[in-house]
Design a protein that fits this description.
Elements lengths: L1 E5 L9 E5 L9 E11 L1 H6 L17 E9 L11 E5 L8 E5 L3 E3 L6 H6 L1 H14 L7 E4 L5 H12 L3 E6 L2 H11 L3 E4 L5 H7 L5 E6 L3 H7 L3 E9 L13 H6 L2 E4 L2 H7 L1 H16 L7 E6 L3 H9 L6 E5 L1
Parallel strand pairs: 8-9, 8-11, 9-10, 11-12, 12-13, 14-15
Antiparallel strand pairs: 1-2, 3-4, 3-6, 3-15, 4-5, 5-7
Helix pairs in contact: 3-4, 3-10, 9-10
Length: about 325
């Protein structure tokens, strides 16, 4: 089978390339899926150079999420049949023509979504759900500031926050991205996410600041976010796309009465399996009803994986990039 394989952990994905690998076999309790589409996420890029917290043994196939059809079932699997349309996620392995995963990790593909959109929503929307519902305990009417609003997680957060009844301020650094976010999801406000945004946020919120701030950027964006968060607000740390991990003096949340909450959706589900299952069921139901609308920035052949990775690195993707093995 054709697959993308990481053979060495090197900068610029130099140790990664296409490979012809044996088709894997489904063991007891496992399912083999013919992958029709695989989403590209920032952790995939980081793993090719060993810069992510998860470091699979070499060599490995990257890819956190996929959509496809059940191709074979292992011994003891009763929940799936060959030909079933499914979506799923694993910590790696999706960027190949076939992937083998535990049967319990699969879900039916929402009928409202095609292959590409189905591969684009599991990771981003689960992260958004854990951030907004579990981390922030969002309420209808809350002001939610979303940084990096055009990225995969950011765009999903804008969409989901709107669906949950929040008032959304989408922040993005480029005019074309801001226009795209406004066209796709019509948030309550779309602003320049470059440093200097705090006065705009205060003006939009009547001086109180944002009740919830979702930050996948870190660095200077995090620092300034502490200046425009409401008393009792929740500042959600999703990642550090800027490259700098910020530090926070403890007197800031003390004086301003806000909390800082780390968001790791996968780890949340592993530590709290019942709540994790509820999270997945919730986003699946929203997708099936058409309440959330995942956006695919580009669909590329697996052979063009380097261009897909570059779209994320250049910060030009609006939504998710999808590879077709």
């Amino acid at each position: 089978m054709r697959a993308l394989q990481v053979r060495e952990l090197l900068p610029d994905h130099a140790g990664t390339g296409l490979a012809d690998l044996p088709v894997p076999l489904a063991g007891p309790g496992e399912v083999r899926v013919r992958v029709r589409a695989a989403g590209v996420n920032f952790p995939d890029l980081l793993m090719t150079r060993g810069a992510y917290q998860l470091k699979p043994a070499l060599p490995f196939v990257p890819g956190l999420e996929f959509a496809g059809e059940v191709d074979a079932v292992g011994e003891g699997v009763k929940s799936w049949s060959v030909g079933d349309a499914v979506v799923g996620g694993n910590r790696f392995g999706a960027m190949a023509e076939y992937t083998v995963v535990p049967a319990a990790s699969l879900r039916p593909r929402p009928a409202a979504l095609g292959w590409d959109a189905a591969a684009a929503y599991p990771v981003a929307y689960l992260t958004a759900y854990v951030a907004l519902v579990r981390g922030a305990r969002i309420e209808p009417g809350d002001w939610v500031l979303v940084h990096g609003a055009a990225g995969g997680v950011g765009l999903a957060t804008v969409d989901l926050a709107k669906a949950l009844g929040a008032r959304v301020i989408a922040a993005a650094s480029r005019a074309d991205k801001r226009a795209a976010v406004e066209r796709l999801y019509a948030p309550d406000a779309v602003i320049d996410g470059a440093p200097g945004f705090r006065e705009t946020v205060k003006a939009l919120t009547g001086g109180q600041g944002a009740d919830v701030i979702v930050d996948p950027v870190g660095g200077d964006i995090f620092d300034e976010s502490t200046r425009c968060i409401a008393f009792g607000g929740r500042l959600l740390v999703v990642g550090f796309a800027s490259g700098r991990i910020p530090e926070l003096p403890a007197n800031m949340p003390l004086i301003k009465g806000f909390s800082v909450v780390g968001v790791r959706a996968g780890e949340y589900g592993r530590r709290f399996p019942e709540r994790g299952a509820e999270n997945v069921a919730a986003i699946d139901a929203l997708a099936a009803a058409g309440t959330i609308r995942p956006h695919v920035h580009a669909t590329l052949d697996l052979a063009d994986w380097r261009e897909g990775f570059a779209m994320l690195e250049r910060r030009e993707a609006v939504g998710t990039v999808v590879l077709r093995p």
